[in-house]
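How a chain folds remains the central question behind the approach discussed here. No coordinates are needed to read the tokens, only the vocabulary itself. For completeness, the protein is quoted in full, as a sequence line and a line of structure tokens:
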Amino acid sequence: MKKHLVLLFILLNISITKAQKINPQAPIESYSQDTIKVQKIPSIISIPFDISMNDIEKQINNSIAGLIYEDNSYEDDNKDNFKCKVWKKSNITIPAATNDVFNVSVPLKIWAEKGVGAFGYVKYIPMEFEINLKFSTKFTINQNWSVQTFTTPNGFDWIAKPKINVGFDIPMDFIIGKIIENNHAKFAKAIDDAVEKNMTIKPYILQAWNVSQQPYLVSEEYRTWVKITPVELLMTPLKAQGRNVKAILGIKAYTETFTGEKPAPPKSVVDVPNLKLISTVPNDFQVALMSDMPHTEAASIAKKMFLGQQYEFKEGKYKIEITDLDIYGSDDKMVIRADLKGSLKGSVFLKGVPVFDPVKRMVVLNNLDFDLQSKSILFKTAAWLLEGQIEKMIQQKFGIPVDDLINFAKQNVESAMNTEYMKGVKLSGKIDQVVPDKVILTPNSIVAVVMAKGKVELKVDGL
């Protein structure tokens, strides 16, 4: 009888400690995004605006040539008995500025006819002379991108003084000087009118606008593109420095990051928004960077962490070992399938939210727990596994390093930023800071998105 009881006890003990088997239904594999398109981010692309006086002189001299002023009436200006024609004699020159004001020197050749006489008798005597008119001018840019000058008289120098010959030479510089002074403001207005009519920077702005919209490749390996969509144009007031006029032009734009095929570039625009003048243009550029790790590689990293290790429960009463792992996505959660042997055989499924840990510089899992199917079966067959030990252990140790990938993406973006995209048009920038944003699961990979912040300039030769 005792032998039978011992045998029964042994059989019961074997049946109790025999490994239990489970086979829960796997969570459905699903993904919210196939191709990554990160949200639009507002940025400012800074464009140093630097106009040399050499360029301004060239444009002014091209726009002001030949006859620039004509007075065909003896009756105007209180019947001054004076007619004249004024030609530009040689190139207009603009030396260095003082307090944002440029001094302009305009060499002129003048033909004049002055009525001289008394007691009702007037004789009109022609004369020719040369003079260097001086002006002071300030530059500004209007909302419609036209260049405007504000020019005021600033005296004159004689190059060849006027005189008339009535058998002998009679100096006329005093009389003509008074007339020149009376008409000096008209000459100043003629300069302003010519500049406003002929000078514009809009073609350069249009070029910068269209170039900035072209998608550019930042990673050939991961087929990652950055696309910039400009929406507004800003500029600081013009400031004179030596023989240059300087300002900062800002293109306010949205930056987007794509993976896959090159995004279709928008059609070139033929007009740009009006200029918005502000005191300072912030140089604040942001772009989303993505580090892309295939599920197979992530699973390989996880296997190195957990495979072959034994885990004990209930003070060693139960032991399990993870023999295989797989990783995939279910909506916004990462699923870990763990194959077990030991006191429990079969597979269990855990779900967690993938996030970027800025301290570990890894993608880790938050709120890791068994999925409902696995939890329901374990509750009936192996409740000891639901004490939280394995979830905590996996959550603490699990981590997918993405630091090298982020640095690689950062280097690629900076390389793309410092590229001449067409002759005379070049992006120049540097990423200063990388801030974690989100983790996105795709059918093939785990994508850690970080926001890269820095400064970007678009340099256009001749602007």
